[in-house]
Specification:
The chain has 475 residues and is an alpha+beta fold. It binds glycyl-adenosine-5'-phosphate (GAP).
Amino acid sequence: MDILQKVLSLCKRRGLVIQSAEIYGGAKSLYDFGHLGFLIKENIKEFWKQSLLFSDESIFFIDGSILLPFPVFKASGHIDCFTDPLVDCKECKIRFRPDKVEKELGELKCPSCGSKNISDPRLFNLMFRTTLGPVDQLEEILTFVLQNSSKSKEEILKDLQEQILKSSVFLRPETAQNIFCQFMNLTKSYPRKLPFGIAQIGRAFRNEITTEKFLFRVAEFEQMELEFFVKSQDENFYFDYWLDKRVTWWKKIINSDSNLRIREYSQNELAHYAKRCCDIEFKFPWGFDEVEGVASRSDYDLLAHARASGKDFFVLESSEQRGGQVKIVPWVIEPSCGLTRAFLAVILDAYSEEPGVDAEGQEKVRTVMKLKPFLAPYKAAVFPLVKNEELIKLSKLIHDELKRRRLYSCVEENQSIGKRYAKHDEIGTPFCITVDFNSLKDESVTVRDRDSTEQVRCHWKEAVDNVVSLCQMPA
Ligand code: GAP
């Protein structure tokens, strides 16, 4: 089994991430996060949030709506440009991206049945579309067709498509557009001196055509995006600045620096809004692939919304040359991190199989999730050695102290110590604290380190202090 399959089955077995609607056969590219998966994801999110809130820069947050109307995406270019080319196999009827399949002697071949009877490419928009309000689209379509019955089929289709698009709302394909649209409203309440950033964590949706590789490319995912507004002449400086900061952030959640690298886009790879872009890539089982993009969006978005809405988008900056203040349209540097993809990178990076022994002393593979302690769902698990009232009582006391210190932990009293260790190794609990009969005499406990499996004996209060300090979120 390859590592992706192993991680996928661990996620299911331990309830971290499960395919949505699994009882009905599962929905392709949709996943639900269970308790432990949710906690890991929230820890990554919190680390991102804190890295901006406590940074040297002025950064403000917004929590925008997921549904946005047609004019937003017409202006942003997503209606016209956020498309993938698609072809149909005329034999087996599957639909695929012609640029993602291998060609035979320069000729396109169906990846499923091998036929070369392929349609011309058509552009397929990746946004999900829906309606707002009590609209019965079927009824609308019928009325439209009846009213326009004198036109040709092609004309009706074209006009109808346009009418439907204009009255639709879309699930945002990136969180960024709320920030651009609200720029003038938001900057009324924020300090408006450049540079400053507006950040958002939220869901984005893409009707992706290729959706293999577990959480890597899914239809519904979370992004953590920062739009950092700068003077145009500072573009290069802040591009390098944020790229460097973001790589440093990634190195704090990934164990091995060699699993990360930067890749600069060539001009013909750039998204419609980007002037320059570098990806931060993680070494996935299939090779290095994108986890975050740092892009220069120039003044593309603010100007696009200014043109389309007829509103003025600017900040006031003092000008020595002209004396007084002048209006300028800021440029944007955008570090855009996929939270769902970061979660996948973190668990793949942490997943490890090591030689170990079971409770009977037999050699076996030890599966351990070497999560950075601050990302782990449980920071500690407290084990009474056996089911004994006094041992359980002291275990609960230690657990209460961990709770009081705001460290998420649990007491586990079922199964052998070996099985309890194995479970907590798999879900990444960095410390297991065992309470035994000596603990009742001198209040000492055994603390086992997840990664080294080394055990140390100390007073339980010292154990709690150590766990608290070792699980701190880094600055
Ligand atoms: N606002 C810029 C933007 O959205 P992007 O490169 O299309 O840029 C940014 O997306 C990040 O969002 C990616 O680096 C990736 O981590 C994540 N992402 C994009 N599409 C995704 C998908 N279908 N499933 C999971 N994550 C995705």
